[in-house]
Amino acid sequence: MSRFSTAVVLLASVAWLGCGKPEQPTKAVQAVGKADLKQVASKGTIGFSALTLTNPFFQVIADQMKAEAAKSGYDLLVVSAERDVKQQADQVNEFIVKGVSAIVLNPCDSQSIGPAIAKANAAGIPVFTNDIKYDGDQGKVVCHIATENYQGGKLAGEAMVKLLGGTGGKIAILHFPQTESCQLRVKGFLEIVNAHNAKSAGDQIDVVSTLDGGGARDEGFKAAKDAIEAHPDLAAIFAINDPSALGARAALETVAKEGQVKIIGFDGQLIGKQAIRDGKILCDPIQFPDRIGRVTVEQILKHFNGDEVPAEILIPSELYYKEDADRDPELKQ
Amino acid sequence: MAKTLTQTLNSTKPPTRLLDNPFIRDYGMVFVLLLLGGLFSLLTLKDQHPTGEDAGRQVADSIIARSGPQARVLIVTRDTAEDLLFSAAAAKQLERVGVKVLASVNGTATDARQAIEGILAQSGEIDAIAANDVTSKWTVYDRYSSVGSAKCVVPASYTWPDFLKVSNLLGVANQTAIYALIAIGMTMVIITGGIDLSVGSLVALSSVTAAILIRDVAGGPQASAPAVILAGVAGIGCCALAGAFNGFMVTAFQIPPFIVSLGMMMMASGLSFRLSAGRSIPELPNSFFWLGRGVTLGIPHPILLMILLYAIAHVVMSRTVFGRYVYAIGGNPEAARLSGVPVKRILLLVYTLCGALAGLGGIVLTSQLSAGDPKFGLMYELEVIAAVVVGGTSLMGGRGKVFGTLIGAFIIAVIKNGMNLTDVDPFNQKIVLGAVLMVAVLLDTLKRRGTHV
Asked: What is the CATH number of the domain that holds A78?
C-alpha cells in the first residue's frame, strides 16, 4: 500500500461517482467551429441550492422542480447547503462557473447570502428564492415563492379556537424562533387566539409556555416533556412543524397523556399526514412543496419568455384533518 | 529525541517501500492534488461560450457575411460588464459597414420583448439577432412568428474544462482560505498531541463579537476604518482568550483537550447565539468588506492572507525554537519536560494561537459574507481536522507539516469542487469525503508501522 496506490483508489472512486450519472449531452453542437445560425437544443441548466435535503420538504420541492423543468427542456442541478451559508455561497460560485441559466436558493441566512446573490447578478444569472426569503439589499432576487406562513398560522389558531373555544384551557407552543417562517406562523396563531380571548369571558385559551422545539423530533420530544411536567393539565400543543409535533406526541405517550393533550402541527409532510390519519395529530395547516417547486419553475420560464414576474408569490395554506387524510390518495399507496 | 534516532536509523536502510522514499513521503500529497486536478479537468471538459469584445466582432462579421450590408440587426445581451463590451463591439463593427442596428438591448428577456414589440410596431423587420449563448436561449423570440430564435447568431464556442477556468480556481482557493487559516492553529495543536473542537464555535463568536461592536459602539455602516480594525481585533482577542482558557484547563488540570474544547465549543456557540439573539447582524460598513472581498492584482485578499500566514507558520514551525518545542511535546511530553522544554507555557501558547486563528477566520468569513452570524462555523472543526489529517499530520502528535495541511485543505476542496462540477449527488459526496479521510488515517498508520516496526 502506498500513497500512489491510494491516490489511484481515490481517483477511481471519484471517477466512478462522477460517471454514475450520464454525462450531460453536449449542447449546441451546431455552434462548434464557427459562428452559425443558432439551433435550439437543450435550453440550459437551472441550479438549485436547497437548505438541506435531509428534510423531505425540500426533496419534494427539488423533485417537482426537476420534473417541471424537464418538460420545458431544462436540466435541474440540485445541491444541498446543509444550512451552512458559506457552503451555499460556494455553491452559487460553482453555478456561475458552470454557466447555469438561473439559480434557485433556499437562503441559509436571510442576510449573509447577499454577496453570493450579488455575484450571480453581476454574472447576469437571474436568482429566484423559495421557502425562505432574502431580506438584504445587496443583490436582486427576481421572484420569491413561499407558503403564506402568516395565513397558515392563523388557520392553526382557528383550529385551536375550534378545539378549545367552548371550554378554554392551557396550551403550549413548540417554536423554532430562528426562522422567519416560524415566527410568522406563531404570530398568526397568537393573533387568532388573542382575538378569541379578548371577546370571551370564561373560556380563555391560555398560552402557558413557549419553548424551542428545534423544528426536530428529538428537540420537540424534550420540550414537550418539560411542558407537560410543568403543566400537567395542559390541553393542547401547537408545534410549528411535523417533526416537532411528532416528537411532542412521543413525549405525551411516555406519560400516557396522549388522550388529554391534542396536537396541532404544521407542514403536511407525509409523516404528518399519516399521523393525522392515525389520530396522533389533530390537524395541520398544510403547505404545498410540490406547488412551490412547480410555480418556481413557471416563473423562471416566464422570465426567459420576457414576461413580467411578480416579486413575490405566496401559496395559501389549507387545514387538513383526519377526514382529509382518509380520502387523500397520497396515503392510499 | 527517540524519534530522531529511529529516523536516522531508518534513513540508512535503502528505501524498499514506496512510502519510505523521502521524496514520496514529502511530496506525495502534492502529486495526489495534481492528479485530482488533471482528473477533474478531463471530466469537466465542455463547450465554453465566449462573450466580450472579440465575440461581439466575430458575430458582427458573421452577420455581415451572411445577410450583407442591408441587414437589419437587433443586438440582445444582458447588463453584465462582459456583455456590454460584446454589445458595443458588435454595434461598432456592424455600423462601420453600414449595417442598421435597430436596437441594442442590455438587460432581461422582458427588455428584449419590449424592444422587439417596439420594432414590430413601427412595421420594422429583423433579419438577424446578435446574441450570446445565454440570450439566444431565451424563449422570447419565438413569441413573434416573424422573429424566431433561428435568427440568433452566436459566437463560436471552444472547449475548455470548467475546472480550469481562472474564476473557478480562484473560487476554490478563496473558499479554502478560511478552513486553511484555522487549520494552521489546528495543525500545531494536533502536533502537540491535542485537539481543539471549539474552533467552529469560535468562528461564530468572533464574527458576532466584531459585528456587534461595530453596530453598537462604532456606529454601524458609518463606522470609521480604525474602529472597524479595533472591532476585528477585539473579535480575534475574544477567541484568543477562549483558546488560552482551553490551554489553561489542559495544562493546569490535565483535563483531556477533547473534553475541554468540547465544553468550549458549546459555551462559545451558546454565547454567540445569546449575544446576537440568534439573528445575523448586517449593519457593517463597506470598509469592513476589504478583507474578505477585496482584490489585489487579481487575487482575492483571503488567498493572499492565507499565503502570508502559511509562509510565516512554515518558518515558525521549521526554523524556530518554538517550533521545535511543539514537535518535542508531541513526540514525548515527559522527555520534552525533562530536557527543559517549558511544556505548559508552549501548550498554552499553542491553544491561544489556535483560538486566535479561528477568530481571524471568523472575521474573514464575516467580511466575505457581509454579516455577523452565530450560525457561522457549523462543523468547521471537523472540516479543519480533516484537512490536517489528510495533510499527513499524525493525530498521535509529534509529526506533521504546516505545508502538508495546506495541501490537505486543497485536496478536500478540489474533490468537493470537482464533484459539484461533475454533478455528483450530494449524498454520494459525503461518502467520498468520508472515505478520503479514512484513507488518510490509514496512510498515517501504515507510515508509522513502516518506520517504527
From this structure: 3.40.50.2300
Residue A172 reports pLDDT greater than 90: yes
For chain A, give the mean pLDDT: 84
Q: Which fold has domain B53-156?
A: Rossmann fold (3.40.50)
Nearest-angstrom CA–CA distance, B91 and A187: 55
**A303 to chain B nearest CA, in Å?**
7
Nearest chain A residue to B56 by CA: give it. Answer: A35
Q: Which domain holds residue A205?
A: 149-287+321-332
Q: Are B391 and B406 in contact (CB under 8 A)?
A: yes
Q: Which of A160-169, A171-180, B43-52, B353-362 has the highest mean pLDDT?
A: B353-362
Give residues 228 to 247 of A whose Cβ lies within 8 Å of B: none
Q: Tell me the ipTM for this assembly.
A: 0.76
Q: Does A89 touch chain B (CB under 8 A)?
A: yes
Q: Which position has the grid cell 458588435?
A: B90
Q: For residue range B363-386, what is the model confidence (pLDDT) as tens digits? A: 999 988 888 888 888 888 888 999
Whether A55 has its CB under 8 Å from any CB of chain B: the answer is no
Tell me: do A244 and A190 sit in the same domain: yes
DSSP string, A200-232: -SS--EEEEEEEE-TTSHHHHHHHHHHHHHH-T
Do A305 and B139 make contact, defined as CB atoms within 8 angstroms? yes
A94 and A203 in a common domain: no
Q: What is the rounded CA–CA span in Å between residue B242 and residue B260?
A: 11
Total number of domains in chain A: 2
Residues 166-195 of B with CB under 8 A from A: 167-168, 171, 175, 178
**Segments making up each domain of chain B, as ranges:** 2-44+164-452, 53-156
Among A112, A141, A170, identify where a domain stops. Answer: A141
Among A109, A141, A173, where does a domain finish? A141
B28 and A CB contact within 8 Å = yes
**Residue A291 Cα, gap to closest chain B Cα (Å):** 23
For chain B, say whether A62 makes contact (Cβ under 8 Å). no
CATH number given to B2-44+164-452: 1.10.3470
Q: Is residue A164 part of a domain?
A: yes
A145 vs A141: CA distance, rounded Å: 11
CA dihedral of B212, B216, B221, B227, whole degrees rounded to 10: -80
Q: Does residue A119 share a domain with residue A166?
A: no
Query: What's the mean per-residue pLDDT of chain B?
Result: 84
Whole-angstrom Cα distance, residue B78 to residue B83? Answer: 6
| Per-residue confidence (pLDDT) for residue B371, from 0 to 100 | 84
From B314's Cα to the closest Cα of chain A, the distance in A is: 23
All three cell numbers of A309, joined, read 414576474
> Are A184 and A326 within one domain?
yes
B-chain residue closest to A118, CA distance: B369
The pLDDT, as a whole number, for residue B350 is: 94
> In the prediction, which pLDDT does B180 show?
94
Which set of grid coordinates corresponds to residue B324? 521545535
